[in-house]
Specification:
This protein has 232 residues and is of the alpha/beta class. It is 32% helix and 12% strand. The chain has 8 helices and 6 strands; from the N terminus they run ββαβααβαβαβααα. The longest helix has 21 residues, at 210-230. The chain is globular, with a radius of gyration of 16 Å. The model has no long low-confidence stretch (mean pLDDT 93).
Length: 232
């Protein structure tokens, strides 16, 4: 089984509320929006043994990569307001550009920086055959550009579970748009970065545990700090 196929968590209905963006305002000097999938936020799903509502497989909300990124930024003197949302709906409908209407709702947060950490569910069983029929690149490019409509700086990451057909598209979009790209695939090949043994469901356990989440956060925070420094 390839690394990305370890993700057997269903790509649909990862969050139940219609407006799934969570917003935390603390009077920060910057606003950061995190767009992702179950690694960013997954609501409770008892049938797979996940009872929480934060980045899947982290032990607490504070240990997922979003909250650890914010904590690292704060350690470096950058207090931010932040929002995070599950956009797996795009992953499983990437060819349907009408889904991008959701971007306008997310952008109501008026972020200065958008972290787009998404893509793994494009290889879910329900979707992967579409890659043979419908080119991912133009739709991924349009999705990314949809988050830049109000002037936010964009930051992309490749996949936690590396998979060349999808990673190559994300990397191409980043290069063509001159967007910073954070590489994560080397983290997803190491079991020490996962929650193996902590959850009975193998798909949940394949998600990043606290250490994996921290390592993701370290890299994203470093890229955000670089963006903010260059903007001075």
């Amino acid at each position: 089984m390839s690394f990305i196929e370890q993700n057997t968590v269903a790509a649909t209905e990862q969050v139940q509320d219609m407006d799934n963006m969570r917003v935390v305002r603390r009077g920060g000097s910057k606003r950061v929006l995190f767009i992702g999938n179950s690694i960013t936020r997954h609501g409770p799903k008892s049938d797979i043994g996940w009872e929480h509502d934060w980045g899947m497989a982290a032990s607490t909300a504070e240990k997922d990569y979003v909250h650890q990124t914010v904590a690292i930024l704060e350690e470096h003197g950058l207090t931010v307001d932040y929002a995070f949302a599950n956009f797996s709906r795009w992953e499983v409908n990437y060819w349907d550009d009408s889904v991008l209407e959701d971007c306008d709702r997310f952008l109501q947060f008026e972020p200065d920086i958008v972290v787009i950490r998404i893509g793994e569910n494009i290889w879910s069983r329900a979707v992967r055959e579409k890659l043979n029929e419908i080119d991912l690149h133009p739709h991924c490019e349009l999705m990314v550009k949809s988050f830049a409509k109000k002037g936010a700086k964009l930051l992309l990451t490749d996949l936690f579970w590396p998979h060349e057909p999808i990673d190559s598209v994300i990397c191409r979009v980043a290069e063509e748009g001159n967007y910073p790209l954070v590489h994560l695939g080397d983290l997803g090949v190491l079991d020490e970065n996962k929650a193996i043994g902590l959850f009975e469901h193998t798909g949940v356990a394949a998600h990043p545990g606290d250490l994996g989440m921290y390592r993701i956060a370290e890299r994203i925070a470093a890229a955000i700090l670089k963006i903010t420094e260059e903007a001075k």
